[in-house]
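Title: Prediction job returns without error message
Component: structure pipeline
Severity: low
Priority: P3
Assignee: unassigned

Description:
Job completed but the reporter wants confirmation the result is attached to the right record. Sequence as submitted:
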Amino acid sequence: MKDINWKYVKPLENHNIITEFENQHNVLIPEDLKSIIKQFNNGRPSLNQFDIPSEKGKVFKKLLSFNTNDTENVFDFLDIETDITGLIAFASDPSGNLICLKDNKIFYWKHETDEIEKIADTFSELLENLY
């Protein structure tokens, strides 16, 4: 695994929040993503660029926080305006686009066009692709 440092981490205020989120919204967050959230909630990775099929150099701004009072938290993004079902946002870019789970795969959601592009099969794969 790549050596990624995470800045601006905010410890989880509720250590059961991920399980509660999963139960409330009938989703399963993959273990590799859960592990990173537990350690680096709200964090910004030192390696923060990745490619999508149609573009290079997209930016992984930060993990969305699982603390309900933090700005840019996962709860704020549950009702994104999209025709795509099953998207669960867990990270953002500086332009208002989101990195999401859908069917346990990782997608990049473009807010201006409401399109998604698959960027990885797993969160670990996305981390390995960061540069």
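Comment from assignee: result matches the submitted record. The beta strands are 6-7, 44-45, 49-52, 55-59, 62-63, 88-92, 98-102, 105-110, 115-120.
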